[in-house]
Amino acid sequence: MPEIKEKVSPEQAAVERWEEETLAPVLKKRPESKERFETVSLDEVNRLYTPADVADVDFERDISFPGEFPYTRGIHPTGYRGKLWTMRQFAGFSTPEETNKRFKYLMSQGQTGLSVAYDLPTLMGYDSDSPLSEGEVGKCGVAVSSLSDMEVLFDGIPLEQVTVSQTINAPASVLLAMYLVVAEKQGADWKKISGTLQNDILKEYIAQKEWIYPIRPAMKLVTDTFEFCTRFVPKYNPISVSGYHIREAGATALQELAFTLRDGIEYVEWGVRAGLDVDEFVPRISFFFNAHNDFFEEIAKYRAARRIWSRVMRERFNAKNERTLQLRFHTQTAGVSLTVQQPLNNIVRVALQALAGVLGGTNSLHTDAYDEALALPTDHAALIALRTQQIIAEETGVANTIDPLGGSYFVESLTRKMEDGALDYFEKIDAMGGMVEAVEKGFPQREIQDSAYQYQKAVERGDQTIVGVNKYRMEEESGTIKTLVIDEGVRDHQNERLNRTRAQRDQGAVSNALEKVRQAAHTGENTMPATIEAVRAYATLGEICDALRDVYGLYEEPAI
Amino acid sequence: MSEQKIRVLVAKPGLDGHDRGAKVIARALRDAGMEVIYTGLRQTPEMIASAALQEDVDAVGISILSGAHNTLCPRIVSLLRDQGMDDCLVVVGGIVPQEDIPRLKEQGVSAIFLPGTSTEDIVKFLRENVRPRE
Questions:
Q1: Mutate which of B12, B18, B38 to disrupt the A interface (most A C-beta within 10 Å)?
Q2: What is the sign, positive or negative, of the torsion defined by CA atoms of B76, B77, B79, B85?
Q3: Under an 8 A CB cutoff, do A453 and B67 touch?
Q4: Residue B72 lies in a domain
Q5: What is the DSSP letter of A233?
Q6: N or C: which end of chain A has fewer CB within 10 A?
Q7: CB-CB: which of A136, A449, A460 is closest to B68?
């Protein structure tokens, strides 16, 4: 039988020639240092990328120009030349007074936006004086139990001018209400307020696990904030769909990308079902990604994210508004990559991760402090983290030109691979009926758990190197660093203000307002107006969440 | 007669939901041939002690990253001792500042595993320190 030869493209033929003539003799003499080279996501990386790897990537269709569909190269036609990314350092610890001081310090050092970290009781919808809050008040963030705390937190910070990001999820609608009432008391116009509420409850069930209510009522609360903000706070981002925590929980870069964007699709579907216009509310949906160690993999992830989102919005939701198609995102360097061992090495890790975020076109950035594997950052550590961003922005020259890696055979090929992989995951999740159903089945949770375990094994085999941990260890660590200690008296301080607030407010107004919250939850009307009224009457976070718990019940995690 | 399997309760006290570590450890101990019971999230010290008794475990592994270790860990140890589980080993994994370690050890925690510890070291520690059963 005659041999059938497959037609080989000239690009492929050129690669084969190189492999045969130049590469093979060298490999024969000296093999490479290992058989398989892989990313931190344990994904194989080829020796070389050439035009043959991007033969199916079309410049006009897939890469294009910044500010134009499909936005692979960024959403702004001027990149960072017009406006640098926002340097937004996440901060919060101890009492509102302490965090207010840290905010003012960071702003005095050139930080351009604020980002609030709340403590665990606040994240779970408990007041500082709840028995469940013991030992946790002010530890992982700032404690906020009522409007009185919020007033102190933003004292002297003009909310009409500063954009504030709030990392809060299960009780997000209540914290949004507190924020809006403080703004109102400052005399700010809600129509002019900008900022971001994390409010991404799906990733709580998937990864971070700070949930309160069952999934569907929780999704209803999220949709309520979309509806409310679209009408009354139009410049505010009511959600930041977050891959950050998915990655921290152990997901690969691809899983982070796929689950986050599929979560985004789910929120859009819920908004549409609530009667909102895609081109009106989707432009205010923002995203939040991780910046992990594998440099090029991360850059490809961000570029793919923009491309996928614009295509999905156009094809799946028939979006017309250009801003609906433009994915905006915040990036934070990978907390999970920081090491306790030789902690100053973390400064270098953070700088490289942040650089990946910048080369991927992030719109805002948080750089972790070097001491965060040990405790919340000290002033000194937080300052170096901010300075790291300023050095990248103003010394390295990387912000001078837009998407400098666009057109790289490797980066374009990886970007395409990320896109294809994410679309495969979308198909699987769609087949399950959507993300809510997939989460109920434990699908993303299981995928992440498996990846976390595979990664741990790879580290223990030595296939993945962590400098100072499984290689280049030092038996005697050179001097331990000073870390931030949270005073155990924080809870007493908080409880005093809570008692004062409870004693001074109009109890009748509080009970009425809480009853209205219950009613709104019960009838399915928008819960935001009643929540705002309760906040104005100084009902506490715990009381408002209890009212909702009464109606919605509590989430129980299935065994996975 | 076959060797008795070591029984371990992996526990996650406090309000924190970051369970990557707890789950990786649970799986690694299982792969090493131990019987592992995972409590799930947000267990009070009382719930953890009572699960330890009910499951008749040889060791309790507490996963904690939130900074609440000084409040929660000693309470778990003392509840275990109160119910007569004198030999039950208590180990802690997570984010614990160096200066807190001596006090936790005085209060009955046998070992504190900081970030970067290999699961093999934890397996080895449990094998060497769990009291053999009668």
A1: B18
A2: positive
A3: no
A4: yes
A5: -
A6: N
A7: A136
